[in-house]
Specification:
With about 325 residues, this protein is an alpha+beta fold. About 55% of the residues lie in helices and about 15% in strands. The chain contains 14 helices and 11 strands.
């Protein structure tokens, strides 16, 4: 209850009008009980607005006393505002998520954010794609190009770095190749740390594995130092990653086969011969022979040169 509530106001007005009056007279005038009247009289007397002499209650001049009360209340209000600001900042630092982050805790929210990011892009989308894809890519591939093609028609450029778990899946590799043939600038790198999409340096979406109820969770990152850091992270991986080009023809018109495309993609992504052999289900010796044949075909002496020439010719 405030110091000057409605009951206190009514009591003080009655005391002004009645002059010196007994407690019972004031109670009858207000239609209050004697006990309720006594509580209010004691409150008003504590404020210095009435006095009680010889059992009679009289009002005292209000202006000076109320000005002092108002000053005290203003000081208390200012102190409360200051503490609210200080404590609010402290709470945000230690208990709340940063204002530039939005945590999305469901598959639906993550999918909607992914769609909105593509729709909002006007110049460029950069992405890191880790894999493995949680469902067969053949089940979701028809939905992948929609946002990509819609943005491409608006002139949005796509730069995407794929992890090896996507390239080792034949359906995944086929989907990547289809995006590259449609204009995506794609590269491969063996170790990608997270799934990340960045639209125009204005919005980023990080997705990661969820729980039993949701296959993935996500975090939206708005303009901030964190967004700048994510952009720098992408560019670092972009410089290290190897290009993936649309499959084209070999010299003499013979089309590059799927096994060689996969071998070159794995080689460019940094896999060892042992790892490539496991992925292709062949021996390490077979992998070495295939690499040697490709080197002889292109007239190069090193695997680095092989990767560069294969990318230049559109074999990967």
């Amino acid at each position: 209850m405030s110091a000057l509530d409605e009951d206190i106001d009514r009591l003080y007005r009655v005391c002004i009008r009645t002059g010196a009056a007994t407690l019972d007279a004031v109670a009858r005038h207000l239609a209050w009980t004697t006990e309720a009247t006594r509580r209010r009289v004691d409150q008003l007397r504590a404020l210095g607005l009435i006095e009680e002499v010889d059992g009679r209650i009289s009002a005292l001049p209000p202006r000076g006393l109320l000005r002092g009360l108002a000053a005290d209340l203003e000081s208390a209000a200012e102190d409360a505002r200051r503490r609210a600001s200080e404590w609010g900042s402290l709470w945000q630092q230690h208990r709340e998520q940063a204002s530039y982050l939005e945590v999305l805790g469901s598959d639906g929210a993550a999918a909607a954010a992914d769609d909105e990011l593509l729709k909002s892009a006007r110049e460029e989308v950069r992405a890191l794609q880790v894999g493995p894809i949680s469902v067969p890519i053949r089940d979701i591939a028809p939905a992948i190009p929609d946002g990509f093609f819609n943005a491409s028609r608006r002139g949005v450029r796509f730069r995407v770095i794929y992890g090896i778990d996507i390239l080792r899946d034949p359906d995944g590799l086929a989907a990547v190749q289809s995006c590259v043939m449609a204009g995506e600038d794609a590269r491969a790198f063996a170790e990608i740390p997270l799934n990340l999409s960045i639209a125009d340096d204005k919005l980023a979406l990080i997705t990661f594995a969820g729980d039993a109820l949701n296959a993935r969770n996500a975090v939206l990152v708005h303009p901030s130092g964190l967004l700048d850091s994510l952009s720098a992270l992408f560019e670092s991986y972009w410089r290290m990653a190897s290009p993936i080009s649309p499959a084209s023809t070999r010299p003499g018109g013979q089309t590059s086969d799927d096994d060689n495309r996969r071998l070159l993609a794995y080689l460019n992504a940094g896999l060892t011969d042992e790892a490539i052999a496991r992925e292709l289900d062949v021996s390490e010796r077979t992998v070495g022979r295939r690499i040697s044949r490709l080197q002889d075909m292109l007239g190069v002496a090193s695997r680095f040169q092989l990767g560069s020439q294969a990318a230049r010719r559109g074999w990967v």
